[in-house]
Write a structure and sequence with these properties.
Layout: H1 2-24, H2 29-59, H3 65-81, H4 83-89, H5 98-107, H6 110-125, H7 147-161, E1 166-169, E2 180-182, H8 188-212, H9 217-238, H10 254-260, H11 266-274, H12 277-292, H13 303-312, H14 315-335, H15 340-343, E3 348-349, H16 382-394, H17 397-413, E4 416-426, E5 429-438, H18 439-448, H19 454-466, H20 472-482, H21 488-501, H22 507-516, H23 522-546, H24 555-563, H25 568-581, H26 595-609, H27 620-630, H28 634-644, H29 652-663, H30 672-684, H31 688-701, H32 706-718, H33 723-736, H34 741-760
Parallel strand pairs: 1-2
Antiparallel strand pairs: 1-3, 4-5
Helix pairs in contact: 1-2, 1-6, 2-3, 2-4, 2-6, 3-6, 8-9, 9-12, 9-14, 11-14, 16-17, 18-20, 19-21, 20-21, 21-23, 22-23, 23-25, 25-26, 25-29, 27-28, 28-29, 28-30, 29-30, 30-31, 31-32, 32-33, 32-34, 33-34
């Protein structure tokens, strides 16, 4: 028993040394303190194990006065400095005063920590004088002298230093980080959401470090212990833990606090009900209790046994469970308006600058503020244009964000090279507008004319879309000026973008769309008509809202003028596209003035579609059609028509409907039902890869919906070469969720099809 306790003491002291080494080689205070939390946890473990060793040593006849005095001095100092921090931000994340939490966090600094790290080693080495059998002299962990580890840590720090932008911080320690616009968490429900956002940051940070240092087993173990501990803390903050009312662990989870605010906690409750939440959490908690927040003190479980259990614990499976729980948190935040900021924690803020940070450093003293303010962007520099366009087209998300911010400023502030005058007519009166075509716009036009591939051409159009809110008129003008040189495919894309931008009055755009509405290519004609309709809804909607119902253009007259010369099937697709505009990004204030027109459009669509359905005696297909129309799901309407057409895929309307959905001409509403039907559109198009790109994120965002997870399994089962992934996904669904007989039958069918395919091969 004595030997086992001594071995555990040595392990604790070594882990504290390793954690201290990692923290001191990262100068970023938040990263360093996140790692250093492990020192607080292990310091408390050391006290418990040292106290547990006292009686066995005394009973064995050893003189323990010096050992006893050293450990109690250590315990007293720990009680004063770090006991509360260990409980509130180390082994657990518990309620605490907002300001006191930041004070506790800032107190985790190198001088205090070094005392406890060195003290742990001294307590262990003090046992050497007792000549206890089995005592092994302390040896500095090899990781402390490995230069490769230091270089990896310094690379991480250099990457952190390169982050010069400002981000939104909704977590409860946001004020303790530099370059962060912090949100105050003043009420219990906000405080709990802030704690969850904080734990999510810690886990992401530790996963990044573990990934880069995975080759070093003691370090990988350390981060595994921390991640497991934080996953349990996250779950306890999200879902109220069923413990006795007087238990130390009692704490209201976010689900209970949301209900206390008279809001629905369905996202959390439905997931807990549908999944094996408690079973998975209990398995993770067992590891947390034995090697994470504690080191098991029972001598029946030796250190080799504990480490073996830790090593075989499936962290990937735990992380898959955690990913679902995080998605539940995000979904709950989106469902409650005043919690949405917590789902956006970590979002980069463009156009924001922060002064000198007052964050308390982990080591040393704070650096003085910069003597020179940051340089302004060179919005008239051709080389900067080219560099930022490359960032946008080929860079990562942060580089793309930097490029978008640069071009946004350049499109509204670079030197003007041409004034464009536009006249807006109101009956017998007119209004005159003037727009600046700037140097940045000329660069964009030249870039389009510079032989870009279709892939990069679409990338430039994405940039135009990303910057459209600043000065849409000249961006539209760039596209119209390029259009005469464009291929039919690119003219189709330009029509789509012009519809999204909707710059009016803009004669050159109107002329272009009018011309394309008579193109010999049906797809271009369709996109031009939908673009005109989008632009009409956006601009006429603004006019009517600002002029108390006055009208410039009649809705029905515009629709009739665009659709009267098309065939019945093409007219149907046009009307579906027009109706879907009322459910897309423009829905709301802009579409409200057309509510009566929209209702009439819905009725006309129902009348046109019913004869196509070949309904049964119960009129079930008509009932489904009405339900889809009333839920504004026009992609769902299109899928419903396609799968019920006489002749199936050979019917001329089948491919036209499916293609219109997949191209986005018929817009998918921003709800789960419509996104699911969009994935089904790609399946009907025999494109399961793109169906997976729709269904995968849908399932990830809705971990409480078992059917969404099953749809992903079905789609994977359709993808040649993804058989192993399909089997793995089916297995993960069975492991994670409580399935009905019908749901189990669907998964079994996926497995059967997979087996049949392998047999045929």
């Amino acid at each position: 028993m004595i030997q086992d306790r001594i071995e555990k003491l040595r392990f604790i002291a070594e882990e504290m040394q390793i954690a201290f080494h990692l923290a001191t080689n990262l100068t970023d205070p938040f990263f360093a303190r996140t790692i250093a939390r492990h020192i607080l946890v292990r310091a408390e473990n050391l006290i418990a194990h040292a106290r547990g060793l006292r009686r066995p040593l005394r009973d064995a006849g050893f003189e323990i006065n010096a050992f006893h005095t050293a450990k109690e001095v250590y315990a007293t100092e720990f009680e004063e400095y770090f006991k509360v921090a260990r409980h509130k931000i180390g082994a657990h994340v518990q309620d605490f005063d907002f300001g006191k939490r930041i004070e506790l966090w800032n107190d985790i600094e190198i001088v205090k920590l070094s005392y406890f790290v060195d003290g742990a080693r001294e307590i262990y080495e003090g046992l050497a004088a007792l000549t206890v059998p089995g005592y092994v002299p302390y040896a500095v962990p090899a990781e402390l002298s490995d230069p490769k580890i230091v270089e990896i840590l310094h690379q991480i720090q250099r990457s952190l230093d390169a982050r010069t932008w400002v981000e939104m911080g909704a977590d409860s320690l946001a004020m303790a980080r530099g370059n962060t616009s912090a949100v105050l968490n003043a009420t219990p429900v906000h405080a709990r959401a802030g704690q969850l956002a904080l734990i999510r940051r810690w886990i992401a940070l530790q996963l990044e470090l573990r990934g880069k240092l995975a080759a070093y087993l003691p370090i990988a173990r350390l981060f595994k212990e921390r991640i497991v501990t934080d996953i349990v803390s996250f779950c306890d903050c999200l879902v109220t833990r069923p413990v006795a009312a007087d238990a130390l662990q009692v704490m209201d989870g976010l689900n209970k606090l949301v209900r206390a605010e008279n809001q629905s906690s369905a996202a959390i409750d439905d997931f807990v009900s549908a999944s094996h939440f408690e079973t998975h959490l209990a398995a993770i908690r067992r590891v947390r209790d034995k090697t994470g927040a504690h080191l098991e003190i029972d001598e029946a479980e030796t250190l080799p046994m504990l480490l073996a259990d830790l090593d075989v614990f499936d962290l990937d499976k735990a992380l898959a469970f955690y990913a679902r729980v995080v998605a539940v948190f995000n979904k709950q935040c989106f469902a409650v308006f005043f919690l949405r900021m917590y789902a956006a924690d970590g979002t980069r803020l463009y156009g924001a600058t922060m002064g000198h940070s007052a964050v308390k450093p982990f080591a040393g003293v704070a650096e003085p503020p910069p003597s020179v303010p940051p340089a302004l962007p060179l919005i008239n520099d051709e080389q900067e244009y080219a560099k930022n366009l490359t960032r946008w087209l080929d860079g990562d998300e942060n580089q793309k964000g930097t490029a978008r911010d640069f071009f946004w400023k350049a499109y509204v502030g670079s030197d003007s090279i041409e004034d464009i005058k536009e006249t807006e007519h109101f009956g017998s009166s007119a209004r005159y507008h003037q727009h600046q075509f700037r140097k940045a716009h000329q660069f964009l036009l030249e870039a389009l004319n510079d032989g870009l591939s279709d892939f990069y051409f679409k990338g430039v159009l994405d940039l135009v879309m990303a910057c459209q809110g600043g000065a849409p008129y000249p961006l539209s003008e760039v596209l119209v000026r390029y259009a005469p040189h464009a291929t039919v495919f690119r003219q189709y894309l330009i029509c789509h973008v012009l519809g999204e931008i909707g710059s009016e009055p803009h004669k050159s755009v109107s002329d272009f769309l009018d011309a394309q509405a008579h193109s010999p290519n049906w797809l271009v004609r369709l996109e031009a008509m939908v673009a005109r309709y989008k632009s009409f809804i956006k601009n006429e909607g603004v006019f009517r809202a600002n002029h108390k119902g006055q009208t410039k253009v009649e809705h029905d007259a515009l629709v009739a003028s665009m659709t009267q010369v098309t065939s019945p099937y093409k007219r149907l697709i046009c009307l579906l596209g027009f109706a879907s505009v009322h459910t897309g990004p423009l829905a709301g204030v802009l579409t409200t003035p057309f509510s009566s027109n929209y209702t009439a459009l819905q009725a006309e669509l129902e009348m046109l579609i019913l004869p196509l359905l070949n309904d049964d005696a119960a009129n079930s297909k008509a009932a489904m059609l009405k339900q889809l129309i009333q839920t504004h799901d026009y992609v769902g309407v299109s899928v419903h028509i396609a799968i019920n057409l006489n002749g199936g895929e050979s019917h001329p309307l089948y491919a036209a409907l499916v293609d219109a959905c997949c191209r986005g001409t018929i817009i998918a509403a921003s709800n789960n039902q419509a996104r699911r039907h969009l994935a089904m559109s790609y399946l009907l198009k025999k494109d399961p890869l793109l169906a997976f790109e729709i269904a995968g994120p849908l399932a990830d965002r809705n971990p409480d919906c078992i059917d969404a997870q099953i749809l992903v399994a079905q789609i994977l089962g359709e993808i040649v070469g993804a058989e192993a992934e399909a089997r793995e996904h089916v297995s993960s669904i069975r492991s994670a969720y409580k399935l009905s007989a019908m749901q189990e039958a669907v998964l079994a069918a996926v497995e059967t099809e997979d087996q049949n395919r392998r047999t045929r091969q």
